Amino acid sequence: MYMNFTARNYNSRKCVYYIVIFDILINFEIIFVGCLGKKLGPRILGRRPESSVPEVIYQTLDENLGKNELQGRSDIPQTLEEFMTDMKKGGYDAKTFAVKLREMVTLMEQRTRMAKIQEYLYRHVASSSIPKQLHCLSLSLANEHTNNAAARLQLPSAELVPALVDNSYFHFVLASDNVLAASVVATSLVHNFLRPQKVVLHIITDRKTYYPMQAWFSLHSLSPAIIEVKALHHFDWFTKGKVPVLEAMEKDQKVRSQFRGGSSAIVANTTEKPKVIAAKLQALSPKYNSVMNHIRIHLPELFPSLNKLVFLDDDIVVQTDLSPLWDIEMNGKVNGAVETCSGEDRFVMSKRLKSYLNFSHPLISENFHPNECAWAYGMNIFDLEAWRKTNISNVYHYWVEQNIKSDLSLWQLGTLPPGLIAFHGHVHVIDPFWHMLGLGYQENTSFGDAESAGVVHFNGRAKPWLEIAFPQLRKLWTKYVDFSDKFIKSCHIRAS
Is 0.85 topped by the overall pTM? Predict the structure, then answer.
């Protein structure tokens, strides 16, 4: 980013140079023209200087340092105080002064960049790993499932099974392999619903998590709400023939394993900005290759008898009655979602298609507009009747295949970009009250604003069940965890 103060253009590093120069030279009563573009001497020392900074200083600061020029150097000042001491002792001319200054500032910049990247790497590792407490919880519940018949209940009970396909109920779908996260979503949903007896929550999980998930909801009833727990292999459609999403994931995983050489290669990149590196690290998260994340594209096939449902991610918390979502007129659209290109929080709500898709690739630039508003997964209303009249699922798989053929170059890694393409033209924008985003990566989110939202979404690395969660926001999630529960206590899961 460049700032035009005078006839010269100065980037942020140059302004650092000039601030440092000013701080140093003022000790020698030398006044110069800095990045403010005017002489400051008369105001500061009460007299007019005869000269400004020599041009050789500007020229030297504009020169680029070699890639390895600073490696192994022990003569570079580490602090401004050291620099000033050396300058007073050394009697440097203007050029040597500028060279030393450039070296010191560049070294500081490199160290700051590396520290930031290390922070992002540690967060990536923390967010990609399974905390031992959650692993303990799954093992404890699996053991309970084996030894306790009460942990093996049919969910739901036989007399409530007809409600699973009854469109007079409010149907929600949650796909998750995280028992604790699923329990918070379910508890917050039911506790805030005005008519919980009309709630049907379909929980989809994988084979390894099925027994722990069934045990938890068998032993922690949310009656009168109806809870169904099924593993993917329990769905007839999923076990018959080829499943496009699984085929695509298998190919995607092979390409992804070589993607940019993994996290080591990403961190080793010396040219990209830390935030770009952070985005690439986050994209390598295993969750992006999880069937739990991709399965939503097959909702019409998984629930052939339902007309409408709300799909919830497992990192959200429901804070209000969600029944009014069924009163929203979708106007023939398939996906009711919150847009993410406008709002008071410019950091979170500034996402357009160019934020996710690679518009330097002709396949993208020829079919989409970069400034078109994006929308969010996390809490979506899906009109399955309207969906079945479209080819959305086929479009999704077509573009996933194109991305694989293009060596994953069409978009940022993740499930939202192909969703943005597949649902293009099929999205009905809903009020942002229903879905507040960014609690997993925006530390400055106002607690008051978050508390007043209908649904809050901890999208980002700082998930509320991880130690790296933001403490002031985590309490919105922990209020729905019973820390006196024997399984929670035995696995040392704590509020903070």
Answer: no
